[in-house]
Amino acid sequence: MVEIYEDLMALVGKTPLVDLKRIAAGVPARVVAKLEMLNPGGSIKDRIGGAMIEAAEKAGDLKPGGVIVEPTSGNTGVGLAIAAAHKGYRCIFVMPDKMSQEKINLLRAYGAEVVVTPTDVAPESPRSYYSVANRLTEEIPKAFQPNQYHNLANPEAHYLSTGPEVWEQTEGAVAAFVAGVGTGGTISGVGKFLKEKNPEVLIVGADPEGSIYTQPEDIHPYLTEGIGEDFWPETFDRSIVDRWEKVSDQEAFHMTRRLAKEEGILAGGSSGSALVAALRVASDLPPEAVVVVLFPDGGRSYLSKVYNDAWMAEHGFLRRPAADAVVRDVLTIKGEELPRLIHVHPQERIGSAIETMREYGVSQMPVIRDDDSREVGSIIGSIRERDLLDVVLKDPNAFETKIVDVMRPPMRMVDVGERVDSLVSALGGGDPAIIAIEEGKPVGVITRADLLTFFEVRSERR
């Protein structure tokens, strides 16, 4: 059967869910991602571009020969540009200067005009991208501003499409939905639909440090693009969000890079932010729970930023104490005060493991097969002090429980010859510890504290 679509707009939506088995291996609940970068324009904003234009046409606000003017971080512009190309409208987009050059070039490739404004100004400033867009709308004949921050066709598009897709794709098993919050349209529309289906679904908003949503008393610039705000949009229904998770730029960007390396998913920085939040939520839910995290766009628009080591280092997200520093150097500075590989066996009791942790002052250990083989394949799991504490608090008799019954998956492993950057990416992205390996054998556990000590010592030696 020949399957030919009428036009590109017919391909918007119906994006897939994918299981994040590797990066979410350390949390009990199942974490799945909705890949909005697979929309034809590369982002979730394709869903609202056509919806806002059609709503404006029906209302008589946009007529043939009209001009679309919109303040945008880039993705909404693409969604509008694609829809406008089919309908013959001219587009002018106003963007803050923190946006990547790739996004600016992309909009121009669609034939749009782009006006760039400063980021570090108040929303009411005549130089802000909101104010500039408003002025252009007033000055240009037949101009119309969809205004994704106030246009209720924005959340409605997600109520009618994204929400139903999440529900159908999980067959109603979704326990939590996690998304970054920018205009609030996505989380409001999806959240409303899911709540109508099941009031118990947890709706979680991921927010950058410095955004009004989680710290209205301390609004300041941040580098994560597309989410967070310095005002409350009309498209955002605050009552929908059950829980907020504040995520730093560093956490977001390191998780974004991990996502590409461990899952092969090249996503934008806001996806990393949402994933950090989703993993926190999944840590609090039972194994049968399904957590859906929304990835709004792909990573090709961020190759000069999040995926650029020089840019990351310039902004303090990658620290290189020395150009030749490797994982082995961290083990060396860690010293020989403790055995290199403090571990536990699967048949040992929780009580014994707690005693070992107290003796050596560690908070996590690998679980090694009972034959005590020192090959990488002998590592079958890991335990954390916090997990053991939770178990014994719930059941005072759990001290006799076997480690095999409570252990987590194995920790990530990094070769001693790899650059220290690999530790920064792993430990900065959420892993509390990693195992260093040499010639196929585990030789030590490195924690965040060990990495910080390494930076401090190397800094003092300079």
Keywords:
462 residues, alpha/beta, Rossmann fold, CBS-domain, six-stranded mixed beta sheet, four-stranded parallel beta sheet
Description:
By secondary structure, this protein is an alpha/beta fold. It folds into three domains: 8-43 and 158-310, 3-Layer(aba) Sandwich (Rossmann fold), CATH 3.40.50.1100; 46-144, Rossmann fold (3-Layer(aba) Sandwich), CATH 3.40.50; 327-461, CBS-domain. The chain is built from 14 helices and 15 strands. It has helices at 46-59, 75-87, 101-109, 129-139, 153-169, 185-197, 249-263, 269-283, 309-314, 327-334, 350-360, 385-394, 421-428, 448-461, and strands spanning 17-19, 30-35, 67-71, 90-96, 113-117, 143-144, 174-180, 202-208, 243-247, 290-295, 364-368, 379-384, 413-415, 433-438, 441-447. Helix 13 (421-428) links the parallel strand 13 and strand 14. It is elongated. The relative contact order is 0.10.
At a glance:
Helix content is 35%, strand content 17%. It is an alpha/beta fold.
